[in-house]
Specification:
The protein is built from ten helices and no strands. By secondary structure, it is mainly alpha-helical. It is globular, with a radius of gyration of 16 Å. It comes from Catellatospora coxensis.
Length: 166
């Protein structure tokens, strides 16, 4: 994609969903995605030639979110803000029960699920984005899906549509 507008329109929702899930819906996820796309636009000549511009934007958004969280923790004494309510309002097409189960996964597993399944990156691209090996991506994804299947089987009212996604 040579045109940034086309890239943005095609990938903005997937990137937002992936960052939202990877960060457990923390405040600032939307701002991090906006900042990442802003940086991509400013460097579009270089980003468009990147092997995967979506992965570049995802990595930038996740880094921005982590930086935001670190700044917040330094500036505000006491407990971090409650982040559960943001996830409850999050768009993205995931069933609320499934979203809650994904949010309960350990951080690395949640990030891998977000990048592999929601952002549709390959194992290699996910590994480069998270700075882990492709084999490690497979292991985390396998464990996450096994956990989700087990927990989903215990949730009442589970429909076949959700099971097909896993």
């Amino acid at each position: 994609m040579d045109d940034f507008g086309e890239f943005y329109a095609a990938r903005k929702d997937a990137v937002y969903r992936a960052v939202l899930v990877a960060t457990r819906g923390q405040p600032g996820a939307e701002d991090a995605v906006a900042e990442a796309f802003t940086r991509a636009y400013a460097r579009w000549d270089a980003v468009r030639t990147h092997p995967n511009p979506t992965a570049w934007v995802l990595r930038t958004a996740l880094n921005e979110q982590r930086s935001w969280w670190r700044r917040l923790r330094r500036e505000l004494p006491g407990d971090p803000p409650d982040v559960g309510t943001v996830a409850d309002r999050a768009p993205g097409g995931l069933d609320a029960r499934l979203r809650a189960l994904v949010m309960a996964l350990p951080t690395r597993q949640r990030e891998v699920v977000a990048l592999r399944l929601l952002a549709d990156l390959s194992a290699e691209e996910t590994g480069r984005t998270l700075r882990i090996g492709a084999a490690t991506v497979h292991v985390h994804l396998h464990r996450a899906l096994a956990t989700l299947r087990t927990r989903l089987a215990a949730v009442p009212g589970d429909g076949p549509l959700v099971r097909e996604k896993l």
